[in-house]
Amino acid sequence: MLKFLPVAVVAVPLALLAGFLPGQEARAASNGLLQLVQAENTGFSDGQLEAYVSAVVKIQEIDKAWQPRIEEAQTSGEAADLTRKATERMIAEVEAQGLTVQEYNSITQAAESDDQLYERILTLLAESR
Hints:
By secondary structure, the chain is mainly alpha-helical.
């Protein structure tokens, strides 16, 4: 049975990446230690957050590769098939990073409402580049 990632699963991580500006890197680095301590209060381990960031990067790569193909689809059925295939690859990448789709979604949802967690994720994104 195919599991579909909710739109927020892709939209929020892409928004995180899109919002990552060079100026934020310096601020994120200076707040790194504080955010590390604060991340412990989110209920997510550093390992989970690092896996999440790795998955976000992979999902962005998949989205970038598949989006033009989806947009060029000749029929809605073809677009749906391509979207399904891209989603399957995104799920596989999440799981390859050691997270379940539910854990990935939980981190995404928490980052939407927790500024400290959001900033911690931005810091990890900066460090991964």
